[in-house]
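Collaborator request, handled under Task 6.
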Amino acid sequence: MRTAALPDALLAAAIGLALSYAHPKVARQSAMTMIVTALTTAFVPMTGMSDDLAFNGCWASIIIAAAAVHVPVGWLSEMQMSWLWRVLAFNAGLWAGLVTHVEGGAPAVIVGLPLALLFIPGQIFVKRNWGIAIKVACSWLIAIAVLEVGLNLVPTPGYTPDHMD
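C-alpha cells returned to the collaborator:
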C-alpha cells in the first residue's frame, strides 16, 4: 500500500534543501510557491489520475530538485538561477498535490509541507561553508527516489497479485 505522506515529505525536504543555495528572498518566494501550489492542487477536485504516473512524477521531481544543489556556481546567471528555483518549487508543489489525489487525501500534503522550510537552517550551513552536508542529504534523497522508481518498474513478489492470490 502506498501513501502520499512520505513522497510529499521527501519532496518538500528536497526543495527545502535545494533552496539553501538560493538567495534568501528567492528561497522564501519559492518555498511559498511550492506550498501554495501543493495546497491548491491538493484541494482542487480531480479525477482520473493514474497512481503510477503520480508517484513516478513525484519521485522524478525529488531527483531533479535534489540534483539542483550540484549545479556549479556561476554556470547560470543570478536571474536564471532565481527562475530555476521558482520553476522547481512550482513543479514540486504540483506533483505533491497530484500524489495526494491518488492516496492519502489532502491531509497527507499538509504533514510534509513544513519541510520546505529546511532552507532556513540550510542557508546557515551554506554561509558557514558546511554545504557539503546539504549535498550529502540531497544525494540520499536521490538514492531513495531512484530505488522507489526501481521498485515500481520491477515486479516484486508480494506487491502485486499473482496466480496464488
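The cover message to the collaborator said: "The chain has one domain: 5-152. The CA atoms of residues 16 and 150 lie 25 Å apart. Please let us know whether this matches your experimental observations."
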